[in-house]
Write a structure and sequence with these properties.
The complex is a heterotrimer.
Chain A (H helix, E strand, L loop, with lengths): L4 H16 L1 H4 L2 H24 L10 H16 L6 H27 L4 H21 L9 E2 L10 H25 L1 H11 L1 H6 L4 H27 L1 E2 L1 H4 L2 H14 L6 H16 L7 H15 L3 H13 L8
Helix pairs in contact in A: 1-7, 3-7, 3-10, 3-12, 3-13, 4-5, 4-6, 4-10, 5-10, 7-8, 7-10, 8-10, 12-13, 12-15
Chain B lengths: L5 E10 L2 E11 L4 E5 L6 H8 L7 E6 L2 E2 L5 H7 L1 E4 L11 H10 L8 H11 L15 H14 L4 E5 L7 H16 L3 E5 L3 H7 L2 E6 L2 E6 L1 H5 L2 H9 L7
Parallel strand pairs in B: 3-8, 3-9, 6-7, 7-8
Antiparallel strand pairs in B: 1-2, 1-4, 4-5, 9-10
Chain C lengths: L1 H31 L6 H19 L7 H24 L3 H23 L14 E4 L2 E4 H23 L1 H11 L1 H6 L4 H26 L7 H15 L4 H21 L5 H15 L14
Antiparallel strand pairs in C: 1-2
C-alpha cells in the first residue's frame, strides 16, 4: 500500500478537512481534548524532524514552547491598535524568530553531544530557560503573563483554537513530509543510521543537524505561541513542562520512531488515553504514565507503526524513501 | 615528485609521541590500482584516515587533483571526490540496499545529479543489482563488502579507498570482489586498497606500496616489491599475519 | 574573606554528599551504559527507609546505613535482572525511558505512602556545631560528609581490590571478552546495579539528615548525578568525588554571590563549557581502555 506523493498529499489534506469538522459535531469537552490532540501531534512532528529523522532525541523541547510563548506575549502586550489576526501573526514571527536564534546559538555546543547526552543536555536547556524566565522580572514568569485576545468576536474560542492548532499541525506535517522526501531528509536519515559513515559519504552532517535543530525549534516555538494564546494567561510552570518534554519522546516511540505519521498517531493515542480514559484517576496519573512507558519499552520498542513496518519489510521489502 | 591524482608529501602522524606515519610521500597515478601492504600496525588504516580527513596529520601535505586537502572536513573531501569503503562494513542497517546506495548518490561528488541512474549503475558495477530491495541487515558479510563499495562509488568519487575489501572472504567471494574492483577501475576510478590477501594483491595491483612501522619501505611494481629483501624481512619479522 | 572561606567550606561539604549521591549513577553508566533516570528515586527510597527504621528503632539515622544498603542491594539486583536487562540490548533511549517510567511509578507510590510533604530525618545532635578558625561546621553536615567520604573510599577499594570489583571493571571495558572468559554478564550487570542502588540508598540517608526531602525531589537528584558524572567523568568514585566537589562549590558560590534562584543556570553553563572543552569529562571514562 504505497502512496505516491500526490496521493499522500491528498490523504493528509482529506484527513485535515475531516478533522476540521470536529468542533461542529463534538461536545465541548471533546473539543478541548481534540485541541490537545492536534497540538500534541504538531509538537510531536516538529520534534521528530530532529529526533526521529536524525536520531537526536531531545528531552527538552518545552524550552522552545516556553521561549516562543513568552517572547510573543511580551511583544504583543506592548503593541496596541492593530487587528487581532495581525497581532497573532506578529506573535508567531517573534516567537519563531526567538526560538530560531536561541537554537542556532546553542546548536554548536549541544549538537556535539550524542545520544542520551544530547537528550539530557536539552533537558538542562529547558530547565535553564524556565529558571531565567521565572527569576528575571522582565519576563514575568513567576507573576504570569496575559495574552491579548486574538479570537474574532463571533467564534467560540475553543473552536477557534482547535482550528488554529489544526492549521499549524498540518503546516508542520507538510514541512516534515517535504523534508523527508528531500536530499536533506536522506542526509538526516544517514546521520541517524551512522554519523561517521554519513560524513565519509559527503553528507554535511554538522550543517544538516543544525538546520534540523533550528527548524524543529522554530516550529515548536510557533506552536508554543498558539498555546500561550489558547491559555490566555501563562506562567513559567504552564509552558516549561517536564511532562511535555517526556511526552514528545513517547509519542514517537508509541507511533514509530523515525516515521512521518508515527508521531501523529502516537500523540492522538496517548492524549486520548490520558485525557479520556485516565481522566478520573488523578491520583493515579503518574503511576499510569510510568506503567505505560514501561510496557511500551518492553512490548513495542519499534512503536505501533514500527511493528507493522518491520513486518511488511519482511514480507515485501520496498524502498522506504518515499514515506 | 611526479604529480598524480593524489599526492602525499612528507606526511606524519604522531599519537602521543608514537609515530604512526612518518614522513611518507607518494603519488598515485590516475586510473591505476595501487595496493598498500604492510605488517600489523604499519599505519595503513591511519593513512586512509589521514587522507579522508578523519584524523589530522601532525605534519605534511595531501593534494588531490592538485588541490591541498589537508585539514579539510571529511565531508568536504568526499565532495571533492575521495570515496572510502570501510573494512568492517558499516551499512545503514535500517535501510534497504538501494537506499544505502542512493544516499551515496545524493551526496559526495555526485551532488544529487542523476540520482536514480547513478544508484542503478553503482549497484550493477558492484554486482549487487539483484539485492537492491533487500534490507541491508539481511546481507552476508561478502555482500556487505559489495554494498560498501557500491555506496562509495555512487558518490562518483574518482578515487576509491578500499580498506581490506577481501578480508575474511572465501576464494569465490574474493574473486568476485577483485572483479568488482577491476570494473570500477575500467569505469575510470582510481583505486587504492589496503589488503592482506597477497595473491589478490599480486593479481590486481599495478603498483604496491609497503609500509612498515609508519615508514614507506618499498614502492614499485608487484614483482619488484615481492623480491625486495627489506619487504621480505619486514614480513618475516612479524610473527603472524594480521587478523582481520 | 571569611565569607568566602565559609562558602567554600559549605560547598565542599555539600560536594562530598553530591559525590556519594552520584557514584551509583556513574557506575551504572560506566558499566551498563544505561542512564538510570530512576537513580533519584532510589536515593529517596534510602531516605524514607532510614526515616522509618530510625524512628521505629530509635537509633541514629547513620546507623541504619547497613540495613538500608542491604535492602536496596536486593531491590537493585531484581530491578536490573527482571526489568532493565530486557531493555538494555535494544537501545540506549529505551532503557533510559524504562527507568523514567519506573521513577514515575515509584514517585506516585511514595506520594501515596509518605504524602507529598517535605520530610526530615533529625539526628540527636541536630543543633551542635564547632568552629575551625573562623569557619563554622555544624555536626550534622560534618557527620554527613565523613559518612560520604568513608563510603566512597569503601566503594573505590571494593572496585579496585575485590574479585567482584575486578570482574565489574573487566566487564565494563571488554564486555565480549569478559563473556568469553566465562563471566555471566547479566549477573555482573545486576550486581553492579545492586551495588549502585545500595550506594544511592546510603546517599539518601546522608541527604535526609541535612536537607528536607519529598517525593518530587527525585528529578533533582537524578539531574545532579548526571551533572556530577559529566563534570567528573564516568565510572569511578574518584571522578564522582571531583565532579561532586566542583558542583557543590559552584552551587554554594552561586547561591551566595549571584542569587539563590539560579542553581540550574550556573550548573548547566558550567556543564556546557566543560563539554565544549572535554566531551568526556575531566577525568574521562575511567573504565574505557586507553587508545
Amino acid at each position: 500500500m504505497k502512496l505516491n506523493p500526490t496521493q499522500t498529499l491528498l490523504a493528509m489534506l482529506a484527513a485535515a478537512v475531516i478533522l476540521a469538522f470536529g468542533p461542529l459535531v463534538l461536545p465541548p469537552f471533546y473539543v478541548r481534548v481534540g485541541q490537545l490532540m492536534v497540538y500534541s501531534a504538531g509538537l510531536a512532528v516538529a520534534w521528530a524532524i530532529l529526533g526521529g529523522f536524525a536520531g537526536y532525541a531531545s528531552f527538552g523541547n518545552a524550552a522552545f514552547i516556553g521561549v516562543g510563548a513568552f517572547a510573543a506575549g511580551l511583544v504583543e502586550g506592548n503593541i496596541s491598535g492593530i487587528a487581532p489576526p495581525l497581532l497573532l501573526l506578529v506573535g508567531l514571527v517573534v516567537g519563531g524568530a526567538c526560538c530560531g536564534v536561541l537554537s542556532a546559538a546553542i546548536s554548536y555546543p549541544i549538537l556535539r553531544l550524542r545520544g542520551t547526552f544530547f537528550a539530557i543536555a536539552m533537558l538542562g536547556v529547558s530547565h535553564v530557560c524556565a529558571e531565567v524566565t521565572n527569576n528575571i522580572d522582565f519576563f514575568q514568569g513567576s507573576l504570569g503573563l496575559n495574552f491579548p485576545s486574538v479570537v474574532p468576536g463571533d467564534i467560540d474560542p475553543a473552536n477557534y483554537f482547535y482550528w488554529l492548532y489544526l492549521a499549524g499541525g498540518l503546516a508542520v506535517l507538510l514541512i516534515a513530509w517535504q523534508i523527508r522526501r528531500s536530499r536533506f531528509g536522506a542526509g538526516l536519515l544517514s546521520i541517524r543510521e551512522d554519523e561517521d559513515t554519513a560524513r565519509m559519504l559527503g553528507v554535511p552532517t554538522e550543517r544538516y543537524k543544525r538546520l534540523a535543530f533550528v527548524i524543529s525549534a522554530v516550529l515548536t516555538g510557533m506552536l508554543g505561541v498558539i498555546y500561550g494564546h489558547s491559555l490566555g494567561y501563562i506562567t513559567t510552570e504552564s509552558v516549561y513542562r517536564d511532562d511535555t518534554n517526556l511526552s514528545l519522546i513517547v509519542y514517537s516511540m508509541l507511533g514509530g520512531m523515525g516515521t512521518l505519521f508515527g508521531p501523529v498517531i502516537g500523540a492522538f493515542a496517548l492524549v486520548f488515553i490520558t485525557q479520556v480514559l485516565l481522566a478520573r484517576l488523578l491520583d493515579f496519573h503518574l503511576f499510569a504514565t510510568g506503567l505505560l512507558l514501561v510496557i511500551l519499552v518492553l512490548a513495542a520498542p519499534g512503536g505501533v507503526l514500527g511493528v507493522t513496518r518491520s513486518f511488511s519489510l519482511r514480507r515485501r521489502p520496498s524502498p522506504v524513501a518515499a514515506e | 615528485m611526479s604529480t598524480g591524482i593524489l599526492t602525499v608529501d612528507r606526511l606524519s602522524k604522531n599519537f602521543r609521541g608514537l609515530a604512526a606515519i612518518a614522513e611518507v610521500s607518494f603519488a598515485i597515478q590516475p586510473r591505476s590500482i595501487t595496493s598498500i601492504i604492510g605488517p600489523n600496525g604499519a599505519g595503513k588504516s591511519t593513512l586512509f584516515n589521514l587522507i579522508t580527513g578523519y584524523v589530522e596529520p601532525s605534519a605534511g601535505e595531501i593534494h588531490f587533483h592538485g588541490r591541498r586537502i589537508t585539514g579539510l572536513a571529511t565531508n568536504r573531501i568526499a565532495e571533492l571526490g575521495i570515496a572510502r569503503a570501510f573494512q568492517i562494513a558499516r551499512p545503514f542497517r535500517d535501510l534497504s540496499v538501494h537506499e544505502n546506495v542512493r544516499i551515496g548518490a545524493l551526496f559526495g561528488k555526485a551532488g544529487a545529479r542523476d540520482v536514480a541512474a547513478t544508484t542503478g549503475k553503482s549497484l550493477e558495477l558492484a554486482g549487487i543489482g539483484h539485492l537492491a530491495q533487500q534490507p541491508a541487515n539481511a546481507l552476508t558479510v561478502g555482500q556487505l563488502r559489495h554494498l560498501e563499495v557500491a555506496r562509495a562509488i555512487a558518490t562518483r568519487g574518482d578515487l576509491l579507498l578500499a580498506d581490506e575489501p577481501c578480508a575474511g572472504l572465501n576464494p569465490t567471494e574474493t574473486a568476485a570482489m577483485i572483479d568488482v574492483l577491476r570494473r570500477v577501475r575500467a569505469d575510470g576510478v582510481t583505486v587504492v586498497l589496503v589488503e592482506h590477501d597477497m595473491p589478490s594483491v599480486m593479481e590486481i595491483s599495478d603498483r604496491i606500496l609497503v609500509l612498515d612501522a609508519g615508514r614507506l619501505i618499498a614502492d614499485g611494481a608487484p614483482a619488484e616489491v615481492a623480491s625486495n629483501p627489506q619487504v621480505i624481512a619486514a614480513y618475516l619479522g612479524s610473527p603472524e599475519p594480521e587478523a582481520a | 574573606m571569611n565569607l568566602i572561606a565559609q562558602t567554600l567550606a559549605d560547598g565542599l561539604v555539600l560536594g562530598g554528599i553530591y559525590a556519594l549521591a552520584a557514584v551509583g549513577f556513574s557506575l551504572i553508566f560506566g558499566v551498563l551504559h544505561v542512564i538510570n533516570l530512576s537513580h533519584g528515586i532510589l536515593v529517596l527510597l534510602g531516605a524514607y527507609l532510614a526515616l522509618i527504621v530510625s524512628q521505629t528503632l530509635h537509633v541514629d539515622p547513620l546507623l541504619t546505613i547497613p540495613v538500608v544498603m542491604v535492602a536496596l542491594f536486593g531491590a537493585g539486583y531484581c530491578y536490573q535482572r527482571f526489568l532493565i536487562q530486557r531493555a538494555v540490548d535494544r537501545s540506549a533511549l529505551g532503557s533510559m525511558l524504562l527507568t523514567f517510567g519506573v521513577a514515575l511509578m515509584l514517585q506516585n507510590i511514595m506520594i501515596w505512602v509518605f504524602s507529598p510533604d517535605m520530610k526530615n530525618i533529625t539526628p540527636s545532635y541536630a543543633f551542635s556545631s564547632f568552629r575551625l578558625g573562623s569557619v563554622t561546621f555544624d555536626a550534622v553536615r560534618m557527620s554527613a560528609l565523613v559518612a560520604s567520604l568513608v563510603l566512597l573510599s569503601l566503594l573505590a577499594a571494593f572496585l579496585k581490590f575485590s574479585p567482584l570489583g575486578r570482574v565489574i571493571r573487566a566487564t565494563a571495558q571488554q564486555t565480549l571478552a569478559a563473556r568469553l572468559c566465562g563471566v555471566n554478564v547479566h549477573h555482573v550487570y545486576a550486581l553492579t546495579f545492586a551495588v549502585s542502588a545500595a550506594f544511592a540508598g546510603a546517599a539518601g540517608i546522608v541527604i535526609g539528615i541535612i536537607l528536607p526531602f519529598s517525593p518530587s525531589d527525585e528529578a533533582l537528584w537524578t539531574m545532579n548525578a548526571f551533572v556530577v558524572v559529566v563534570l567528573g567523568g564516568v565510572g569511578s568514585p574518584a571522578g564522582a568525588l571531583i565532579g561532586g566537589l566542583l558542583l557543590g562549590v559552584v552551587n554554594t558560590l552561586t547561591a551566595q554571590y549571584i542569587g539563590p534562584s539560579f542553581p540550574n543556570v550556573t550548573m548547566f553553563l558550567l556543564l556546557v563549557l566543560l563539554l565544549l572543552v572535554r566531551p568526556t569529562g575531566i577525568l574521562g571514562n575511567a573504565f574505557s581502555p586507553s587508545r
